[in-house]
Amino acid sequence: MRINNLELTDFRNYNHFFIEFDQGINILIGGNAQGKTNIIEAIYLLSVCKSFRTHINDQMIRFDHDFAKVKGNVFSNERMHQLELILSKESKKAKVDGKDILKISDYVGYLNAVVFVPDDLSLVKGSPSIRRKFLDLELSKISPIYVFYLTKYNRLLKERNQYLKLLNQRRGKYDEYLETLDEQLAEVQIKIIEKRNNFIERLSLKVKDIYLNIANCHEIVELRYECFIKDVNKEDILKLYQKGIERDLRYLSTYYGIHKEDMKIFIDNKSAHQFASQGQQRTIVLSMKIALIELIKEEIGEYPILLLDDVLSELDDQRKTKLLDILNNRIQTFITTTSIDGIEHHVIKEAKKININHREEKWWQKKIKYNIAMMSQISKY
Q: What share of the chain is helix, strand, coil (3-state, %, to 5)?
């Protein structure tokens, strides 16, 4: 799997931009605010129809324009495809080979990408919701049936919460309709829990080995699934719902369920959230991302592409060398950096170097300029 080229129109700081990539290592070199991360973001956007930086389309559209377009030719499953995303301020429109795609589940999978950005440290030190989002996104890339189960669960959960509000207004109690919803929720959660548990177990084994390699130490990293219920079966889940009905009616939301779960990260049997240093946290997350690559390869038969935003500057020389040894041109990789001076490694020497010099103006800076211009126009009258 690889992306051959990328074309941007009115995306971020790019008016019109076209670039071709090598199938091995691509290093995007440039100063701060030149647009390196924007290229990484655009590639990731083509992969999952989502940005890792924002959920607001307007921030990705060039200032004073209504639309942005991201297009790329990708090679996957032994075929060439053209992927295209058109962003408006309210929506995204996806195309594959010129044909409109209506469901995201029909789009995701043409280009699988794993991204590492500095903010990913929140996987270790952030809230459980960040790790749940990580789980759901990565599982969705490799398992269409998981997308189906998760979509069904979210629909049922929303329906249950709405019905709780109706019951509260009527001063009602646990009834037949709520029982039917709970049975459906229990059944779909059993399937989701099985998928999550299997995924975390496999990922944990790979993370352990990769961390030992990169960190060159004897610390043991482990991922553990923290499920909302000890014994996963329909009867016990239904008992939990019945037990929590008074609380649910009081707060008008469902307390128990997979939407409250977590993936705990441990280093030498201690919580990485509490005890891991900044360097250990960074190496743990990097190990998780590389482990994901191997897991995706096992599932779909192809390596995904790897996007590394400003990683080299955050690693010491030993960890840089270990990381580059692992990559070694077998995975199409994109690395952003301000400089490669002083890095002596054959991967760097053989990589395609792309100089980026396209000064970026932040969306809020553009907004200020726009407001100043508008005030100037008003003052004329």
A: 50, 20, 30
